[in-house]
Amino acid sequence: MDSTRQEKIGRMLQKELSSMFLGIARNYPGVMITVTNVRITPDLSIAKVYLSIFPGDKAESTLALIKEHTKTIRYELGVKIRHQMRVVPELAFYLDDTLDYLENIDKLLKK
Fold it and tell me: What share of the chain is helix, strand, coil (3-state, %, to 5)?
């Protein structure tokens, strides 16, 4: 169970990271990055960021590129939220494959 504070901070981080990834995706034509969920630990030190990357064949390479630039992304996030939070949480990026899972289930049900 997440506390109200965790949920509020998660939504704030999701909003800010979404706007950042919108700008990053402009540099990589043909790739769409969506922040689907942000889960934050109770001590607000680690944020797990779940990304949905389209198209699926570029997902792993794009996620690897994002993980390489985690420190830069965290710094830019810190600049944006410096008045809302004292400490910027560490960011851990994960691939959100729920859409692929749902498509697979839908395809199996149609058979």
Answer: 55, 20, 25
- pLDDT tens across 17-54, in order? 999 999 887 887 888 999 999 999 999 999 999 999 88
Half-sphere exposure of 28 (CA within 13 A, CB side): 17
Helix (H) or strand (E) holding 103: helix 98-110
Q: How far apart are CA 25 and CA 12, in angstroms?
A: 20
The verdict on pTM exceeding 0.90 is no
59-80 burial, b if ≥16 CB within 10 A, otherwise e? beebbeebeeeeeebeebbeeb
